[in-house]
Each structure stands twice: as C-alpha cells, then as structure tokens.
Amino acid sequence: MLSERQKLILSAIVDDYIRSAEPVGSRTISKRGDVGYSPATIRNEMSDLEELGFLEQPHTSAGRIPSHKGYRYYVDHLVKLGSLSGGELDVLKLFFAERLQEMEHMIQHVATVLSGLTNYTSIVLGPELMTTTLKHLQIVPLNETSAVAIIVTNTGHVENKVISIPDGMPVGEIEKIVNLMNARLSGVPLVHFKSRLHNEVSSELGKYVSKYEELIRMIEGTLQSDEEDRIFVSGSTNMLTQPEFKDVDKVKGILDLFDEAHTLVRLFSAAPKGIQVKIGTENSVEAINSCSLITASYSIDGQLLGTIGILGPTRMEYGKVISLLDHLSKDMAVMLARWYK
Q: What's the pTM?
C-alpha cells in the first residue's frame, strides 16, 4: 500500500510526464501548487517509488518516468476523470445522433422507395432478433459516475446508452467485465444474451470483479429490443389518396393499425416464405379486409430474415408490385449478406 504522500507524488509525476514527455524531477513537482512538499522530501519518496517498481530512471538525470506498474496503479486508483466541455458534449451528441444504423437505414430506405414507386403503403419487417448477434461491447467512461455503453451487432446496428457506474468501481474493473463479455458472448444471439450472461459469465466475473451486478443489469437494459425496432412503415397516408378510402371511418382502422407494432409483427411473421398475395378477407386482420397485402420474404442461405410488403386497395397493380417486391427482396438478401457473413 502506498502512503497518501506517495500517491500524490506518483499522480503528479504521471500527469507531468503525460503533458511533457520528459523525465520529471523533484524540483518540478515541488513547484506544483497541489503538492506542498520540499524537493528533498519529494526526492526521497521518488526513490522509494522507484524501489517499489512504480517509477523508472531512464538515464543518470534526476528525473523519473512512470513504469508500466506505475501507470496501472495510476489508472486503477489515482486517475481523475475530467469533465467534458459543452463543445465536446455537443460533438458526442452530434456523432451519436448522426451515426447511421446501417441495416435500419437501408431497410427504411427500401420502405420509402417502395411507397414512392407504388403510391401505396409499404411495410418492412426487419431481421428476427434470433439472427442478430453481439459483435462487440464497449464502455466509455464520461466521468466518475457515468459512461456510454456501446453495443455493436453483426447487422451493423450500433446501440448506445448512458449508464451509471456503480459507486467505487475502478476503471480497471469495468475493463475486466467488458473483456470477459466480449470473449464469452461475441456471436451469441441477443435473444439468448441474458441467459448466457447469467449462466456462463456472472459466476466467473464474481471471481475477479466486485460490485459487478449493477453494471451487468444496466448493460442488459441497453440490449433490450422493442418490436417497434423491427417495423418500418412508409407512405401510411397514401391510403387517403385512393378513392376507395374517402370514407374516414373505413380508413381510420387501417391508419390505427400502423401504430400497432405487435399486430404488424404478428401479421408479417406469419407470412410464408416467398411472395404471397392476400386479397380482401383473406387477410387475418379485420382492419385490412378491404385491402390487398402482397409480401415477399428475404433470406440468406435458407435463413428467413424478414418480410417486405405493400398494402393497398384490392385494385392495386399486382404485376408491378409483385415484380418490385421480388426484385427488392433479392437485392436486400445480397446487401444484408455482408453483415451476416
């Protein structure tokens, strides 16, 4: 255990060496307003710190530099996490706001293109959670009490969330948790993440890290996915331009359906593989019994990933819509293959 004076001097040496990249002498440290010890006292402590392996003397000068052991102690026990300036926080916010969620961006673009080309409503069901796996986890401390947890999946999706750092948890322990989770859980489907985390990782974490439970719970919350995240709707008001739907009461149930993510997920998940056409009352959802729904699934190596569809009046241009969906579903499979392989 280092004394408080040794900790203060070691911290000052590391800080000065980081700034100057030059060996730090006792006189330099004594001139710092936050130290308050004479050069002779500092010199004695520096000798003791060198003997303990925390400092090194690169040549015959009186200056010392931190050793690897000194840096590790500094990071684990002494480092003071600086607060970010308003400008720096704005840059971070802008980065996360503009960061393209690659797969979602592409799927939303498909939905927009489809509704524009057909003047109907397009609905796209994104890949099943079962096929989405953890690629990488990173936790970036912002200050002593909070950090950003960044989750990257095999689909290119980047999820980030500000989490609280448990009281007294050193940065080094956070690093151990992250390294173990990346080693054990990379490639695990997100739907199995929680059970694998508790069954395989928690017991091992307990051997090396204390106070990890709260941080684990926060990471779990970051990985939770809502059904709304899988549904993309474009052109929902296109129904209003069709003469069949001038009756407000008739179209209200359809527009309400677009807000019911659970119903849409169930409707599209039940669609068989390939291209399917449901006309009028063939549709299982009463709200669209006056519509036609054409769907096309997209797959990779036989694995069903999701479904794209067009909802319109029963007099829709079936040939045009079927051709569009057939073409786009194949293109989507090609584009998504780069994330899954």
A: 0.48
